Amino acid sequence: AQSVAQPEDQVNVAEGNPLTVKCTYSVSGNPYLFWYVQYPNRGLQFLLKYITGDNLVKGSYGFEAEFNKSQTSFHLKKPSALVSDSALYFCAVRGGNSGYSTLTFGKGTMLLVSP
Amino acid sequence: DTAVSQTPKYLVTQMGNDKSIKCEQNLGHDTMYWYKQDSKKFLKIMFSYNNKELIINETVPNRFSPKSPDKAHLNLHINSLELGDSAVYFCASTQASNSGANVLTFGAGSRLTVL
Question: Which of B43, B50, B102 sits opposite A105 (nearest CB)?
Fold first, then answer.
């Protein structure tokens, strides 16, 4: 069975500082990895995904994520945090090439960016 | 606007009642989902339909019955509501035939409160 671990319930960072939100995964076969963000009282919004190729993936709002196959990790990063980045972030994984297979989400990490 | 629309946004009801949540997408996607987000923000898939056919049915009480009249609509009916059903229910859609890299588009959520 596939799974996602987000070891931090909350990440606190000061505005302007770099941020990292951690994610590790377990899946059979090649992984498809995703990051979504949820703002209060809103649905999840797609940020970025890794399919294959370059291990550094760039996404929306200046976010990027680094795929590390040996560590089975897909950490979300941003060079300079904004207060408006404060939200709940979900890592997700789908194993195999079938679009019909389940997308499994981690438990989420709350990012709080202080002014 | 192209989107995934859910109604109602808020639903407050008594234990034992029956209620429905409706979902519609105008994105032309072939696959729709229901996810449940509990009070700890954990997201769990409940059902998935592809072109009106059920393809994922996780361990969900049979009080929950999804119905897909066409590929643009996926409704969720809940019988004999219990306190533990209180959660935010998210509808999502995707073009699953595009491979495992497909991205889910989420609705804004329907917050169900059972008293």
Answer: B43
Expressed as residue numbers, the domain containing B35 is 4-114
Interface contact A99-B31, CB threshold 8 A: yes
Please answer yes or no on whether A103 and B104 come within 8 Å at the CB atom: yes
- Return the domain boundaries, chain A: 3-114
Determine the CATH number of domain A3-114.
2.60.40.10
The per-residue pLDDT for range B34-76, each reduced to its tens digit, is 999 999 999 999 999 988 888 888 878 899 999 999 989 999 9
3-state secondary structure string, chain A? Answer: CCEEECCCCEEEEECCCCEEECCEEECCCCEEEEEEEECCCCCEEEEEEECCCCCEEECHHHCEEEEECCCCEEEEEECCCCHHHCEEEEEEEEECCCCCCCCEECCCEEEEEEC
Residue B56: give its domain's CATH number: 2.60.40.10
Report residue B79's pLDDT band, with 50, 70 and 90 as the boundaries: very high
